[in-house]
Amino acid sequence: MSEAAPRPIDRHLFAGFLRQHRKAAVAVAGWSLLEAVPALASGLLVAAALDRGFLAGRPAEGFFWIGLLGAAMVFRALMTRTLTPWLGRIVEPLRDELVTAVAAGAVHRAAAGARDTAGAGVARLTVQVESVRALVSALLRSARQLGVSLLMAFVGLAALSAPVAAVTLPPVLLTLLLCAPRLRALARRQRRQLRAEEALTAAAGETFDGIRDVVACGARDRVADVLSARITDHRDAVRAVARTASANTLLVSLGSHLPLLVLLLAAPRLLDRGALSVGELLGATSYLVGGVAPALRALVSVLGSWGVQLATVLGRLSRSTLPARRTPGQAPGPGASPRPPRSPDLSLVNVGYAYGPGAAPVIDRLSLDLPAGSHLTVVGPSGAGKSTLTTLLAGLAEPDSGRLTLGGVPVTEVDRAWLHRAVTLIPQEAYVFTGTVRDNLRYLRPRARDADLLASATAVGARALVDRLGGLDAPVGLDGPPLSSGERQLVALARAHVSPASIVLLDEACCHLDPAAEERAERAFAARGTTLVVVAHRISSALRAPRVLVLDGERTAIGTHAQLLDESPLYADLVGHWVAATTA
Predict the structure, then answer these.
(1) How far, in Å, are 155, 302, 433 from residue 510 at the CA level?
(2) What DSSP letter does each residue of 556-567 carry, written as one string?
(3) 274: CB partners within 8 A, 6+ apart
(4) What angle do CA 552, 555, 559 make, to 5 degrees?
(5) Which residue, 511, 515, 502, 539, is CA-closest to 430?
(6) Contact 70, 104 (CB under 8 A)
(7) Mean pLDDT, range 3-19, rounded to an integer
(8) CA distances from 479 to 351, 466, 489, 490, 519 (A)
(9) Contacts from 223-229 at CB under 8 Å and sequence distance 24+?
(10) Can you tell me the distance from the alpha carbon of 165 to that of 157, in angstroms, rounded to the nearest whole number?
(11) From 176-190, 391-405, 411-425, 522-536, the region with the lowest mean pLDDT
(12) What is the model's pLDDT at position 462?
């Protein structure tokens, strides 16, 4: 079942989001204009208080105009209070959209074979998405208010005195023009900082996850050097951002005082010519000192910090939702096009796979043939590459070397839609979707009849669980009762059994079941005629399989249970340990 690729996180996502929330956007715009009434009226009211009141010998009228200014400030506070809930109606749904887009992008990239590090994915889904939410919230509160106030201050200044507006507007525009290239430079440094942050998060996560291996292998100094290098890169990136931001702050500080200086220099001439009254001079000064200068400084500062951060983070998140770029073996080569295999036969020839450049191969020169309908059990010590093998067979990763074919078709040319229908992988930690039992069982076969669902549940031993839950219409997941790990595995096994998959990979998918339930499930898949690969939790799985693969680097061997007991010391040891554990 194919799904549409996620939309990139860019201005188009925001445009669509605002269209969906048009009512909230219009309300924010309307209340913002009302909130800016004091910025529009302050200079006019000050000029009226002086020219019509105090300087004209009518102090009562002067106090009246000053009182109106105070009332305008109270009105602004009321408008801000009314506006705040509307801002929340934009910010919180936006975060939900971003989480959905990032999660969908991660799933699509993983399905396409991209090797994104878990740490980078966590950074996107937590730190970066939350950063976008906080930045959008801050910009809506501050930049919106500052921008509208700056505009209204100039409108009021123009209404008060057109000559004053004509001489003070150019310095403000010049400051904005000079800041624009500085903001682009700041954005580049912000992107570098984000890349350094992702690299540090990924390196730290991998180190902490494998800390026991690091200590056991004596790699503490090497790992410490790697982490120190990542920390140094992040520190240098943060310092570069701080230096650029400081330079912008100095430029804006000079630019915000320039209009007032121009006004003071022009004031004597304007007063002598009668183009400006004393009240208008005081009103214009209040516009510049109380409105234009602080709004300009704050606006450029906000855009240079929060605005640049938002653009940088959005750009980083947008790349995480784009289709995965082609890596060696990921997409069809030149002139090749995706095609369905002739059969579900699997063949590996000298396949190798490593987790990263320079890392030791977890699978090295493995050759294996799995004809359609075959049954193979994979055993080996922890870390031998058993789960990695199932990942390769499922097409979720591709070998670094060697050749892996499905039905004679190289994995680089296999049609992805065929692969998703024909191969099912059940990991150790089975997933149950929120919905009904029916929704879960027919997820891989949406048109399956209820009789087919119940037959598969019976075959793998999940029928009693379905009946206990209340039948196919019973809710499960977040809406249903809590399920044990074994019960979740039964649901996943029944889902795979009813699917059209011709290749089923059980990666310790029965580890939470008792031996009898595990045997029943494995025999149900074997009787189905499915190609079955079982990563064994118990050695009893190997006793049921015609062939067993012992996976452990140079000691890798394949054969029957009896053959391997004689030919593979590792297999004999595994059998002995299992027998001792079960009889103890």
Answers:
(1) 73, 55, 19
(2) -EEE-HHHHHHH
(3) none
(4) 95
(5) 511
(6) no
(7) 53
(8) 44, 15, 18, 18, 31
(9) 227/200, 227/203
(10) 6
(11) 176-190
(12) 94
Q: What is the largest CA-CA distance in the chain?
A: 116
Strand order in the sheet with 409-410: 363-370, 346-353, 401-406, 409-410
- Which residue's structure tokens are 């606006």? 299
Q: Do the Cβ atoms of 419 and 395 come closer than 8 Å?
A: yes
Q: By CB neighbour count within 10 A (0-12 exposed, 13-18 middle, 19+ buried), where does 259 fall? A: buried
Q: Are 351 and 363 in contact (CB under 8 A)?
A: yes
- pLDDT of 117 > 90? The answer is no
Q: Would you give the DSSP letter of residue 267?
A: H
Cα 504 to Cα 533: distance, rounded to the nearest angstrom: 6
Give yes or no for a contact between 541 and 534, defined as CB atoms under 8 angstroms apart.
yes
Please, are residues 79 and 31 in contact by the beta-carbon 8 Å criterion?
Answer: yes
Integer Cα distance of 454 and 494 in angstroms: 9
Residue whose pair of structure tokens reads 């996560």 in the numeric block: 205
> Which residues have CB under 8 Å from 418's CB, separation 6+?
340, 341
Q: Which residues pair with residue 405 across a beta bridge?
A: 347, 410
By the 8 A CB rule, do 472 and 438 touch? yes
Confidence of residue 467 (pLDDT cuts 50, 70, 90): very high
Q: Between 100 and 48, where is the model more confident?
A: 48
Cα angle value 80/85/88 (rounded, 5°): 120
Range among 7-21, 96-110, 114-128 rated most confident:
96-110
549 has a pLDDT exceeding 60: yes
What is the identity of the amino acid at 93? Answer: P
Q: How confident is the model at residue 326 (pLDDT cuts 50, 70, 90)?
A: very low
Helices (H) and strands (E) in the chain, counts: 23, 12
User: Both tokens of residue 236?
Assistant: 């240098």
**Residue 540 vs residue 248, higher pLDDT:** 540
User: What stretch of H or E contains 485?
Assistant: helix 485-498
CA distance 402 to 367: 9
Q: What tokens appear for 151 in the block?
A: 């505009």
Q: Give me the count of residues in the chain.
A: 584
Where residue 45 falls (left for φ over 0; alpha for ψ -120 to 50; beta otherwise) is alpha
Structure token digits, residue 368: 């294996």
> Measured between alpha carbons, how far is residue 427 from residues 56, 222, 230, 431 in Å?
87, 33, 33, 9
